[in-house]
Amino acid sequence: MKKKLLLFLLLGLIRAFGQTPYTNSWIEYNQPYFKITIPAAGIYQISAAELSAAGFPTAETPNSRLQLFYRGREVAIRVVGDNDGKLGSAGYVEFFFHGQYG
Questions:
Q1: What residues contact 44, with CB distance under 8 A and at least 6 apart?
Q2: Rounded distance, CA 56 to CA 34, Å?
Q3: How many CB atoms lie within 10 A of CB 23?
Q4: Going by C-beta distance under 8 Å and a sequence separation of 6 or more, which residues neighbour residue 49?
Q5: Helical spans, DSSP H, in 1-102
Q6: H helix count then E strand count, the chain
Q7: How far apart are alpha carbons 95 and 75 in whole angstroms?
Q8: SS3 41
Q9: What is the distance between the terminal CA atoms of the chain, rounded to a whole angstrom?
Q10: Pairwise CA distance, residues 82 & 88, whole Å
């Protein structure tokens, strides 16, 4: 009985220490971030008006600087905006969320 318990604890420790810890090394602390809550897997579209209402500077931020992350991994996005390279009033950000990534 003691051998089984010891083996169980040993395997648990190996499993716990064998996992890669979650880190925030991808964060650049000198730039702003906005949190988006996604309820389920699917295709999502966030309008420039919604981003602006949340305090995001849509008029100043170039489309090429927009990124979306989930648990430290970048999520592919499609940005549609004005010809000046910014979202404008009719622009939007579109992305697909799988639910959970690897």
A1: 38, 94, 95, 96, 97
A2: 8
A3: 8
A4: 89
A5: 2-18, 48-53
A6: 2, 5
A7: 8
A8: coil
A9: 36
A10: 6
CB 38 within 8 A of CB 97: yes
Q: Are 65 and 56 in contact, with CB atoms under 8 Å apart?
A: no
Look up the pTM and report it.
0.67
d(CA 65, CA 3): 57
* Whole-number CA gyration radius for the chain: 20
> Strand, coil or helix: what is 101?
coil
Q: Could you tell me the CA-to-CA distances from 82 to 36, 54, 58 in Å, in that order?
A: 23, 20, 11
C-alpha dihedral, 94 to 95 to 96 to 97, nearest 10°: -120
- What's the pLDDT score for residue 21? 57
Amino acid at 33: Y
Residue 41 Ramachandran class (φ > 0 left, ψ -120 to 50 alpha, else beta): beta
State pLDDT tens for residues 39-77.
889 999 999 999 999 988 888 889 998 999 888 888 999
